[in-house]
Design a protein that fits this description.
The protein has a single domain, classed as Nuclear Transport Factor 2, Chain: A (Roll). The chain has a four-stranded antiparallel beta sheet. The N and C termini lie far apart (37 Å). The protein is α+β, with helices and mostly antiparallel strands. The model has no long low-confidence stretch (mean pLDDT 92). The protein is built from four helices and four strands; from the N terminus they run ααααββββ. Helices cover 23% and strands 30% of the residues.
């Protein structure tokens, strides 16, 4: 990726000053949100090594590399929107990030997830995610797919 391009994570920062710092190994994400954004960017770029390295070691399996490769091969990522973030009140080493990621596999779809992250040995790791129902915008809101059209004129007319 051209370092002068805007980062795919939705931050509106240049890649080199955003997720590029993490994917290159120059820095590690300091927050669960930074890790979430950098993992999304890694999916966009097909950086399987980064995705595995930021997945909690206790959750990794022998098939992870192949599963991720298959997903990347068949998916075009189109946008990320962070909905909510929170820290566990009892354990500050646990954080949650709710997001919607727009992607295309044959047709445009959304992934609405509440991801759980854990900080271990000074690093944040993705632990697991809870898939949530699709977000449905109001009729006159912009469509979640990023088309720029009103929801009623885009994906809203499919209901």
């Amino acid at each position: 990726m051209n370092t002068e391009q805007i980062c795919p994570c939705g931050s509106r920062k240049k890649y080199q000053y955003c997720c590029g710092l993490y994917l290159s190994g120059k820095e590690i994400p300091k927050t669960a949100v930074q890790l979430m954004r950098s993992r999304y960017t890694a999916f966009c770029q097909g950086d399987i090594d980064y995705l595995i390295a930021t997945y909690h070691p206790d959750k990794r399996t022998k098939n992870d590399r192949q599963k991720i490769a298959n997903s990347i091969k068949n998916t075009t990522w189109l946008g990320l929107n962070i909905i909510d973030t929170s820290q566990d009140r009892k354990n500050q080493a646990i954080a949650y990030v709710e997001f919607v990621a727009i992607f295309k596999v044959n047709e445009i779809q959304q992934l609405h997830e509440r991801s759980k992250f854990i900080k271990a040995n000074g690093k944040w790791f993705y632990l697991e995610g809870e898939i949530l129902p699709d977000l449905v915008p109001k009729r006159n809101d912009n469509c979640w797919c990023g088309s720029g059209k009103k929801y009623k004129k885009c994906h809203g007319n499919q209901i």
